[in-house]
Design goal:
Length: 146
Amino acid sequence: MEKHTSGLVVLSAVLFLLVGFLFGGIYGSETITKEVEVEKIVEIETIVEVEIPTENDYLGNAVSFFWEELGDEDNLLICGNQSYDSDDIELSRLYDDYSINFDEEDYSVDFQIRLTYDEEDSASCRSTWNVNVLYEEDEDEVLTFA
């Protein structure tokens, strides 16, 4: 009987422990939720390719603008005492001596150009021009010549 009683005591102790753990797990557990703000600093390396114009780009743009404006400037269409069409005018020489001047918000290109004026029925004429093209920020280009 003693074996029976001690086995019963052990069995009831184990049963009480299981029931205690079960009730403790259900009623004794607390869930705590806490919001935490985390600041995360991320550095991103950015590679940007920038094309920087060369002196030849500035000079080429100025000469192109000169040719665009050639037909609109009556004084450029006269050589000697004769008037020519812009189609009759060719570039004879672009002199190496040119300058590019930069200010804070604008820049100018100064160059010297020789033009050949030629019509089929007349002798050719040549004229040399000192040209200045002014580029102002948010403005149209300004062409001056002498």
